[in-house]
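Dissemination and training. As part of the outreach component of the grant, students in the summer workshop were shown how a complex can be specified as a set of sequence lines and then modelled as a single object. The example used during the hands-on session is reproduced here so that future cohorts can follow it. Participants entered these lines:
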Amino acid sequence: MNDIKLGISLYSFSTEFIHEKLDFEGILKKAHDMGYQGVEIVAAQMVPEYPYPSDEWLAECKALLTKYELEPVCWSAYIDMGIRGDRDLTEEEIVQFTVNDLIYAKKAGFPMVRTQHAISPKIFREMLPYCKQLGVKLTIEMHHPHHPEVPVWKEYFEIMKGEGRGWLGFVPDFSIFQTMPHKLYLDQAISFGCRPEKLAEIVELHRQKADYSVVANGDFNEIEKHTAEEMFGKFSAPAKMEQWKDMIDCAFYMHGKFYYLDNDDHDPCIPFEEIVAEVKRLGYKGYIASEYEGHHFDETIDSEEQLRHFVALMTKNLEK
Amino acid sequence: MDFQAYNKILICKDDIRNVRVGDAVLGYEFKIKYPSYRGAFLSCIEALSFEVDGKPVPAGEVSFRLNGKDFLLSELPECFKEYWFVRAPATVFVRIPGGIEPGEHSLRVTMRHRVPYTGYFGQYLTLLSDVTETRAAH
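and obtained this result:
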């Protein structure tokens, strides 16, 4: 059997959850029925008493995971820096939120908390004693538009490879490898007023690595220019496969992010074949979460069908 | 253009309901949800306004009810310990003597809100959710 296991972020069922087609338990049951074992919960989404869940709720969560034979893998946390309009969170507030998340994770049975880059290297380091006391790892997600060369990550990797080794790590999100906009993004751009032939022209210019100024000065309407600006900004600095080897020892978990799949074989936006081949070659052991995120763009798509495509695609590549 | 699909949950399917206290009709109420995949601190709502049948509802006549409390719309930016769970409807109570005429009405909700964790390079993403739906009142 493979050292790499496919898990699921329950966030993949955002559409069903927010439209009240599935509740928390319904999603756990669905994950079990689909054959998943390892699960991630986004606390700010599914924990009803967030950010102050009671011990009763946390115990119930743990019991439900047992009931559906699911393995708690990751408790996902946020650094909501901009909660207040007048200032960012202070260090004390970030510490308070993060220690709380480590405690909640422990009580609900999760061995890992996933937080965000805004935690700062100083506070990340300060969490190490709490991690050791509780036996809970702390990881930072590397999500687009961040990538391995964003300066703060140099500091994070130093901490993860040094004093934090084994306790402090990171969660690469496959969005960092995205090379072009996905179908749902393009469909939405058309619904907002992009002319299909003009949008295709923009996608082609982007593929050819043209400068945005070609669009800015070209025959395009305002929404087309706005879309192009976003597209050129978002999908022009994908991480490189050769960067894996320097960071994979710090990857405790991975987010198999995807936006839309219409088949079991290939996604034109994120190079899953290359990613899987490289992380296997480098000996990664652990979970890759199925993380469907098309719900940002289109709520009419069936999340389960998307996940089935993803599982088929990933399984093929994992078994290669 | 992330987040746009979530605007579909902003105005709940519930009807508009006239609010009776004893024999008096003091106004009407309807329900809204936070338009995202996750909940929000109320302090992330930078602006919230309503129109009924094309006419603005004066902010001073509105109570925003959530978590067992009533808030003024002007208080929301201060509510940085008050969390709006993504599946929890808030009730918007509009005080107007006699309430609202039974039948169908056009209801517009406009919310400007900050995504508090998107300060990737120092700038928060601010979203505008602007939704109009027809709802029956009775």
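Chain A touches chain B through 38 residues (CB under 8 Å). Students were then asked to discuss how this feature might be tested experimentally.
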